[in-house]
Design a protein that fits this description.
- By secondary structure, this protein is mostly helical.
- The chain has one domain: ABC transporter involved in vitamin B12 uptake, BtuC.
- Helix 1 packs antiparallel against helix 8.
- The chain starts with a helix and ends with a helix.
Length: about 300
Amino acid sequence: MLYIFSIIVFVCVHGIAVSGLSLLTGYTGIFSIGHAGFMAVGGYAAVVLYKNLGVPFLLAVVLGGFIAVIVSVILGYPALRNKLEGDAFGIVMLGFVTVVRVAISNIKPVLGGAIGITGIPRLSSVWLVILITAIMVYCMRNFIKSDYGKNCMAVQQQESAAEMVGVNPLRTKLRALMISAFYGGVAGGLFVFYATFVSPMSFAEAKSNDLLAAVVLGGMCSLSGPLMAAGILVILPEILRFLAVWRLVFYGLAFILIMLFRPDGLFGYREISFKWVGRLYHKIKAGIGERQKRTGRG
């Protein structure tokens, strides 16, 4: 049961981080391959605040998210102001996650250096993580449907046209980066307080690749698609664990098949809809009412 709970927590943590990256890359069009850096900043900040300054657990996690936001502004404002886009911004983010990892590895007094920090209490219970994930995904859904979210999509599809109708591209991109960093920081904090251990390799470049892969496989301009893809990317390696070294081959093959048969991703430009449940309910209700009428006539 503990193993299943661990999988659920890791799916939720990745879901939170992917939600933020989906806003940044999927809806705003800012390519990022260093999102694990924000998870590292938020995770380490939350642990330091809790263990060294006595900040309560949930407050420490939230503050860790805000510290990630501050870092995103310091990093993103100069880059976005100079109109770094596409591969150029992606290289900036790749350098960012590398700098964070190397810097943490060389700060031994508080952050433990390359060894990391041990003895972290397990405060991220599975039900608390599920609740926080649901709240954050709901907030992201509302943001995407708001005018701010529509501005992000306008900047992604045609930045010059969006600017002509009054949308500020720099402000829109920076806002998306800040929100994305906050989600990454909170995800990192929840992860650390469940794993009870953190080291620089906990948030290596491979973590950023997994998050970006979830957004691409799930579909651009979709929130539910990347969330589903994030769950698949966490669960699939565990299902294939019995294949030992061959599991990575099948893991990569699944990537190839999805991109061949679903080039727009699982839910590209679409969301999971539960309207069919309502339609089915009304159809069944109408059928029962019609049957009762016939019975009454008989």
